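To: structure desk
From: M.T.
Subject: fold request, one chain
Message: Could you run this one when you get a chance? Sequence is below, nothing fancy, just the single chain.
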Amino acid sequence: MLLLNRRTASSIVVALLAVAVWFPSVASAAGTEKTNTLMTVGEMCGGCVKKINARFDGVTGIAKVQCSIEKKSVTLIPTKGVRLSPRGGWEIMESIGKTPKKMVTPVGTFTSKPKT
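Reply: Done. Structure tokens follow.
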């Protein structure tokens, strides 16, 4: 039978409370919702980047657009609390002649124009 003195017992209780407080915060951080939309296209150049940035500039709900010529990708970062329409993003890209090959959104992955 294990007998603990008061000091050891209180140290164990403090340690257990610290662990109980720490673990829920780790779980909530791991569960953060992904909100960005990532699109890959067939070709991308400096002119494409200018067109894409100009077209998405001022679109309600989009905080930032990041283009990567090397990865042939466009990342749409929404303003806080906004969920972007997959179809809307796809159609904007089509309007400038850059039909996405693949689109990864919080609601799913698309290889053809989303219905919603």
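Reply (cont.): Strands lie at 37-40, 62-68, 73-78, 102-105, 108-110. Let me know if you need anything else for the meeting.
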